[in-house]
Amino acid sequence: MPIRNEPWPTGTPCWVDLQSDDVPAACAFYARLFGWTFEQAPEGAGGYTFALLDGRKAAGIGPRPEDPEGPPAWITHLAADNADQVAAWIAAAGGIIMVPAFDVMEAGRMLVAADSAGAVFGVWQARDSFGAEVHGERGALCWNELHTRDFDGSKDFYARVFGYTYDTVSDTEEFRYAQFRPVGAKEAFGAVFEDARSLSGAPNYWLPWFAVGDVDGVSDTAAELGARALMPPADSDYGRMAVLAGPEGELFGIIDPVMPAGTA
User: Fold this and answer.
1) What does the pLDDT profile of the chain (264 residues) look like in tens digits?
2) How is the chain split into domains, by residue range?
3) Domain 13-126, what architecture?
4) Cys staple from 215: which of 30, 37, 54, 240, with CB 3.0 to 4.6 Å?
5) Distances in Å between the alpha carbon of 194 and those of 99, 155, 245, 253?
6) Distance of CA 115 to the CA centre of its chain
7) Hey, is 104 helix, strand or coil?
8) Per its UniProt record, what InterPro entries does this chain match (predicted)?
9) At what angle do helices 151-162 and 83-92 cross, to 10 degrees?
10) What is the pTM assigned to this prediction?
11) 59 Cβ neighbours under 8 A, 6+ residues apart
12) Dist. CA 178–CA 192, nearest whole Å
């Protein structure tokens, strides 16, 4: 099992959490899908819950803010050495700080922002908690994908803020997809995808992917529990995969990877 025992490099997707209107129901749903167990965060964390895989932190589920900007959704958090400095870079690159940097007890410091194309993401500066402790394993996060209608602008934003470099997979009118590498990384940790099929006016967004061993079985279970398949199970060069909308409408992908995913 790939295990992480130190902070993730700057710009790496290091954590995902679900902002939910019904945390107990969301926990029950994902326990069935991924075999997660749950642990309450310390008192004062506002009902936040850690999802555990074999006792290690894999993701989080917490109550949606009282004045939410949007519907329930999975939020991807990018690692940073200095959240306040990254906030200045986000603003300079055309992004918007939605929740200014604040301390999360002794765990770390974080902020929430929207990039230059409106996709929402978090920034996490690790202290006692560095993010995902398990990754690339069945039931764990294995890939993070930015879906955007502003392919070039989004690439430029993350290059300016986090120093991303890109490996182009395809750059045709039909399919534009580039994997990104944070500074110093030898392998890709996610990708930018031009989602031209997204409805006009729909928000751009980060899509988390979770590794599973039986995409069809997990998709069927999700449907029985109230989810919808936005992309039914299908084979790809990277493994069998599907994109689902959970019971609250939150989007996520599942994949049985054909090769190890070097991601958070």
Assistant:
1) 577 777 889 999 999 999 999 999 999 999 999 999 999 988 777 789 999 999 999 999 999 987 666 799 999 999 999 999 999 999 999 999 999 999 999 999 999 999 999 999 999 999 998 999 999 999 999 999 999 999 999 999 999 999 999 999 999 989 999 999 999 888 899 999 999 776 556 789 999 999 999 999 999 999 999 999 999 999 999 999 999 999 999 999 999 998 544 443
2) 13-126, 141-257
3) Roll (3.10)
4) 240
5) 27, 10, 19, 16
6) 14
7) strand
8) Anthracycline_SecMetBiosynth, Glyas_Bleomycin-R_OHBP_Dase, Glyas_Fos-R_dOase_dom, VOC_core
9) 140
10) 0.94
11) 15, 16, 17, 18, 30, 36, 50, 51, 132, 141
12) 5
Q: How big is the chain, counted in residues? A: 264
How many CB atoms neighbour CB 25 within 10 A?
A: 15
> Which residue type sits at 206?
W
Q: 13-126 and 141-257 share one CATH topology?
A: yes
CATH of domain 141-257: 3.10.180.10
CA distance 26 to 111: 24
